[in-house]
Amino acid sequence: MLISKYYEILGLPNNSSVEEIKRAYRIKARLYHPDVNQSPDAKDLFIGVTEAYDFLMANHEKGELDDKDYFRAVEDWRKYRQDRSRQRAQYYARSSFATFKNSKYYKSTRILNASSIIFNIAVAITVLVFTVLGYILKLRNPVPGEEFRTLMTFILLLIISLILLVFAIYSLKGYIETSKKHRKKL
Fold it and tell me: Residue range 103-127: average pLDDT?
């Protein structure tokens, strides 16, 4: 199977990030899990989605592969991981969705979201703190003739840090709401 087919199974463009792959897998796994989806082909779709996720995660860090490297990666995948991926997917397809959702495998797709939100908040707070401290230091040790530039730099950095903080808080709020929705569905 071509790598573009794996991206297509997850409904993603070929240049998707790891976070986008994980997000798409969570959505598709929830959609196709046989415990949630009662259609006769749900189990096969779930297995296909899990296989696509495993392949893309195993080969994403390699970046753009040329044809030779791609076919070697596909052969390695077929030899060593495809069968294991299918067995894992079949196991999770037989289990309840609640059990699957509480598995380390499924939870690993959410770790990146939480850590990136925490990182964004830390960066925003750091920029805000250093902006205020830098301005206070400039006020204590002024350079003659640069008062206007100091004030403009402070205002610009303050606006940037506040935008980062608002974005981080908005992301955190969305993450919390999504987590609550996931808990309510169970």
Answer: 78
Do residue 30 and residue 85 come from a single domain?
yes
pTM above 0.70, yes or no: no
In three-state form (DSSP H/G/I as H, E/B as E, the rest C), the secondary structure along the chain is: CCHHHHHHHHCCCCCCCHHHHHHHHHHHHHHHCCCCCCCCCHHHHHHHHHHHHHHHHHHHHHCCCCHHHHHHHHHHHHHHHHHHHHHHHHHHHHCCHHHHHCCHHHHHHHHHHHHHHHHHHHHHHHHHHHHHHHHHHHHHCCCCCCHHHHHHHHHHHHHHHHHHHHHHHHHHHHHHHHHHHHHHHC
Whole-number pLDDT of residue 184: 67
Count up the domains in the chain and report the number. 2
In this structure, are 88 and 142 located in the same domain?
no
The whole domain housing 160 covers: 111-185
| pLDDT average, residue stretch 125-141 | 89
| Judgement on whether residues 152 and 175 belong to the same structural domain of the protein | yes
